[in-house]
Queue: 2 jobs
Job 1
Amino acid sequence: MQTIAFCDLDDTLFYTGRKLDEALRSSTAALDRIGEAHSFVSRHQAHLLGTLLAGATLIPVTGRDPDAYGRVQMVFDSWAILDHGATVLRPGGLPDRVWQLVMREALEDQEQALRLAAQAAGHISDLMHLGCTVRLHEAGGLPMMVVVKHPYALQNSLDTMSQQWALWRQEAGVGLRFFANGNNLTLIARGVSKEAAVEYVLGQLRDDSEDQELLTLGLGDSLADAPFMNLCDFALTPGDSQLMRGVLENELEQR
Ligand SMILES: [Mg+2]
């Protein structure tokens, strides 16, 4: 049986420097735009990779775009899912053509909504002096999501932005998907998701594996990771992750 591990990267396989004490760092995981160490693998994460996942084929499932993925100092040699699922790389690193066409179709008629959402976020931040940064991200030359951050991860600013942006979406009738984790508020095009891309890659892997059975693991820390982790045989999340907190803080119906 072959083991396939679909792994989120940030906050699952490594942490940014501000979240990980120097004493707990094992190695550098990713560089920033100017080439300096930005994210680190903890000793526990290194051990997880070296033991539990040693025999598995690792497939990154990340919100990182190709540039940011290129700054990750780990070697993945199978498929890779980037841009929250908007980009799928085949083994060898070239974009999957079929997935490109699927995404183009999904993104084409949402360009205007995404541009308006980015403009609205900019206006809200300026008018209310929130000091947030707004970035419209593209995949394959088409806008696919808007990400709002605060340079110092100021929670008050992010909370206000989140509420005001939700009001704007309601009034404007914009049906983009929203999710947030830490210093990121994200609005993403419908049809773009980690789970859609994982489902596609799983289909390809099953076609390629002929008769060999696959054991699939899903690793992630965010609530937005849960749907793709649920496609796998087993799911693994760090303690105190957003996902675990979500489960524990809400009184879930037991039946
Ligand atoms: Mg993550």
Job 2
Amino acid sequence: MLIFLDIDGVMIPAASWKPTPNLDDDFPQFSMKAVSNLNQILIETNASIVLTTSHKSRFSTSEWESIFKARGIDVKIQKLDDNLNNLDRKGEILNWIDKNWNYEKFVIIDDDKNLNGLPTEIKEKLVLTKSLVGINEEDASSAIDMLKKRSLVAA
Ligand SMILES: [Mg+2]
């Protein structure tokens, strides 16, 4: 199972008047609530992460795993390709699915409303967070339900 995970507006609530401090690894702290809600999803589903954030190219996947670990999240991480063609988030995700998807279950957790324009069968797997809040408990239970739903496609 995969979680396509954004960071800004998901793990770090957007609040430009109050910049989030960086930790020693030069990346901002995550919201404690978002960490606990994401961990709830990981505990219940054993999913791994595909990072979609625009920050993805700043670090290698093993550096990202350390960054998440330092914030209390122990998970295997891969990421979307570097966005050399300036695709929007929707285009980046569709591109990755087209090239890499192995019929495993997935959810997309993001605050980018343009993702509402995803094709229906993929949009069904979208959990749109509130940018100022990040992943809340309701988002976490939606994601868990989507990941545990019995697949109609034989994999
Ligand atoms: Mg975002």
